[in-house]
Design a protein that fits this description.
Layout: E1 5-11, H1 16-23, E2 28-35, H2 41-48, E3 53-55, H3 58-61, H4 64-76, E4 82-85, H5 94-99, E5 104-108, H6 120-126, E6 131-138, E7 148-155, H7 162-185, E8 189-191, E9 197-199, H8 201-210, E10 213-214
Parallel strand pairs: 1-2, 1-4, 2-3, 4-5
Antiparallel strand pairs: 5-6, 6-7, 7-10, 8-9
The chain binds glycinamide ribonucleotide (GAR).
């Protein structure tokens, strides 16, 4: 049965995070999946689950800006409750982010504010870190910034390579992201006007039981 809280997913690639969201959706429905890559594997996965898809090619639309406008208008068309970036590798326009602040979330493969941008696994290994992780955050205008909702940590073992680490971290991403979206959809986690994330006692408890870190900036 369709749930009231509607989520639009934006992705650019294989869509494993999207799949984990679809599989673990308890309090939300994914109403559409949109991509900036017409051949994204994640689109095929969405189609096979019967979820409507949309894809916009930069080449066909003539410019990145035209492509971005088409993507944003498709994303906002049904006034979704949340726009979820799941491996979406195109920087959002500041105007879109500002107008929709609090309504767009992202997952990033590092313990933000460490390692925004690309090659996070390699950078963590090269830096000699023993702890890595992933972060889910509300999206702000700078790349990979904005209030952190929750993080999952993952040990870096001797011998780990960027590939092995990224594989290992994915299993944490696949638990963390659905948890965050379910908590938001259930009203257990919210963003205040002061841009601080707040958590119900039940969601704090659940985070603890799952081994997730939650923002310290909470009331
Ligand atoms: C995931 O590891 C996600 O954290 C990362 O891209 C991968 C997408 O995998 N996102 C970013 O780097 C965003 N800055 P998926 O397509 O299998 O979900």
């Amino acid at each position: 049965m369709a749930k009231d809280f509607s989520v639009v997913v934006l992705l650019s690639g294989r869509g494993s995070n999207f799949e984990s969201l679809a599989e673990q959706a308890e309090h939300f429905s994914i109403t559409k999946v949109i991509s900036n890559k017409v051949k994204a594997l994640g689109l095929r996965k969405a189609s096979s689950l019967g979820i409507p898809i949309d894809a916009f090619s930069q080449k066909e639309l003539g410019s990145v800006l035209a492509q971005k406008e088409a993507i944003y208008s498709s994303a906002l068309e049904s006034s979704p409750d949340l726009i979820v970036l799941a491996g979406y590798m195109q920087i959002l326009e500041p105007d879109f982010v500002t107008k929709n602040f609090g309504k767009v979330i992202n997952i990033h493969p590092s313990l933000l504010p460490k390692y925004p941008g690309l090659d996070t696994h390699k950078r963590a290994i090269d830096n000699g870190d023993t702890l890595h992780g992933c972060s889910v955050h509300f999206v702000d205008v700078e790349v990979d910034t904005g209030p952190v909702i929750a993080q999952a940590t993952c040990a870096i073992e001797p011998g780990d390579t960027p590939d092995s680490l990224s594989q290992k971290l994915l299993t944490f991403e696949h638990k963390l992201y659905p948890w965050c979206v379910n908590q938001i959809a259930a009203g257990e986690i919210s963003l205040g006007l002061d841009r601080k994330v707040s958590y119900s006692p039940a969601s704090r408890q659940s985070a603890k039981e799952n081994g997730f870190l939650v923002s310290l900036d909470v009331a």
